[in-house]
Amino acid sequence: MSLQNKAIRIRDLRHAVLLCSAKDVVVDGMPEITREIKDHIFAAIKPKRKSSYGRDGATTDSRDRYTHEILFRYVEGVQIQETAWIYEDRGADIPRWFKVLETEDDYDKAQNQYFCVRARIVESSDDLTVPVEPDLSSTIAQDLPEGVVL
Predict the structure, then answer these.
(1) pTM of the predicted model, to two decimals?
(2) Phi/psi of residue 19, each to 5°?
(3) Contact 71, 104 (CB under 8 A)
(4) pLDDT above 80 for 119
């Protein structure tokens, strides 16, 4: 599938999403997955298959089957390969978590092409765990080189 065949307009990029990575963390001796925000971006979300939900808001679909294509414009610095989860905060609507199954980053900056992510909707509920901001406390402050002024 080529991204050149996607008929996307700027107005289609109306979904505010958070591209997240997954980190395995041990809390009180129990493994836990923490989803850390990598990028904030606007995307077009196209449903491709219907999903069925359980009472808790989790989907009952196959783990290997994608349900949505999520497209966004090429942005310098966005590392699509590091994206494991996508969180969509829908404002007044119920937020959704998508698990990234496949990425396509065959783009050409000169033609303003798009990244394409095939994802499976995992959960849609008011009680979703919100992604966390990256922990910058371990960042080491360094003095600027001589002659550099900000």
Answers:
(1) 0.70
(2) -85, 125
(3) no
(4) yes
Q: 58, 98 in Cβ contact below 8 A? A: no
Q: Which amino acid is at 11?
A: R
Our count of domains for the chain comes to: 1
List the domain range (segments joined by +) for residue 60: 3-124
Report if residue 108 sits inside a domain. Answer: yes
DSSP characters over 11-24 = GG--EEEEEEEEEE
pLDDT of residue 59: 61
pLDDT digits (tens, 9 = 90+) for 49-73: 766 656 655 666 667 788 888 988 8
- Is 137 within the bounds of a domain? no
**CATH code (residue 36):** 2.40.10.270
Q: Is residue 146 part of a domain?
A: no
Q: Is 29 left (phi over 0), alpha (psi -120 to 50) or beta?
A: left
